[in-house]
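Structure ticket #2291
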Amino acid sequence: MRVPVILSEAKNLLFSCARKQILRCAQDDNEGGFTYLTILFVIAFMGLVLALTGEIWHTAALRDKEAQLLYVGSQYRRAIERYYLSGPRQYPRTLEDLLKDPRKPNVERYLRRIYFDPVTGSSEWGVVKAPDGGIRGVYSQSEDKPIKTAGFDLRNKAFEGAEKYSDWKFVYDPAAQQAPVTGAPQPGAANPQQPIAPMQAPQPAR
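Resolution: structure written out below.
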């Protein structure tokens, strides 16, 4: 992640400039010392910048974790979907079933590995149970408020306005997979159900 590196370089540059400024004050002071007020100002300014830098770094790191959560959650949902459609219409009983389908004699994977929750850093996920007792979705167990509240893709549209990360539930629901809806013909558009009349040759002038 490049943001913390940039912030660290900016902080080092600021300290270097502040140090040079203090030394310059010491050299320019006719009495051989630098004023107490100047030192307090520089220290206060450096503390403010450090606080802002920490806040920016924290926000950037959290946004990165959110992006990872959206990716990992989508991987789980996709794996559950493949498991459901690749055999009898049933959900996996455990997340480990996504690594090796117990219904089949050969090893068939729907997920590369069990991912950690990027927000909590734990391997423990909340699970959404299906009516048959299987797992139809996962979610983070973090109760923190997300930074991202809008701009989700279609499958994650329900995440908009969520109050906590645990509301981001990555669920596969076969009933939600709808076929495209055919809209009504637009004015002036040809109706495929109505035959088109053949063109008539122009009548010669009399």
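Closing remark: The chain has two helices and three strands.
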